[in-house]
TrEMBL record:
Protein purpose: In muscle, parvalbumin is thought to be involved in relaxation after contraction. It binds two calcium ions.
Signal peptide annotation: none
Organism of origin: Coregonus suidteri
Keywords from the named record: Calcium, Metal-binding, Muscle protein, Repeat
Record family assignment: Belongs to the parvalbumin family.
Binding site for Ca(2+) 1: D52, D54, S56, F58, E63
SMART domains: EFh
Record protein name field: Parvalbumin
Entries under PROSITE patterns matching the protein: EF_HAND_1, EF_HAND_2
MF-aspect GO terms: calcium ion binding
Pfam families, per the entry: EF-hand_7
Residues reported in the UniProt entry to bind Ca(2+) 2: D91, D93, D95, E102
Length: 109
């Protein structure tokens, strides 16, 4: 598991269960429940690189769609509506992607 040692397995399971239904994902609630909201900026940068599957230095829309699967392979994909809302919340500079600093800001917001 990518977040081993950074997040508790039971927190990940509870956070995923909380947003298991389509259209139930709320990034602020998820970050709090999973334990990321209280992490240091350095830890958030590490978390960013787990989500940045193609290692481009940005989290693109297709990676956001599979965001929950970063925490558990069996988790659902986000809906298009959830993905677009998540991207809009994190993409401060309007380039259509979330950079590492934007991600850290999004999690801490």
């Amino acid at each position: 598991m990518a977040f081993k040692g950074m997040l508790k397995d039971e927190d990940i399971a509870a956070a995923l269960k909380h947003c298991a239904a389509a259209e139930s994902f709320k990034h602020k609630e998820f970050f709090t429940k999973v334990g990321l909201a209280g992490k240091s900026t350095e830890d958030l940068k590490k978390a960013f690189y787990f989500v940045d599957q193609d290692k481009s230095g940005f989290i693109e829309e297709d990676e956001l769609k599979l965001f929950l699967q970063t925490f558990s392979a069996g988790a659902r994909a986000l809906t298009d509506k959830e993905t677009k809302a998540f991207l809009a919340a994190g993409d401060v500079d309007g380039d259509g992607m979330i950079g590492v600093d934007e991600f850290a800001t999004l999690v801490k917001a």
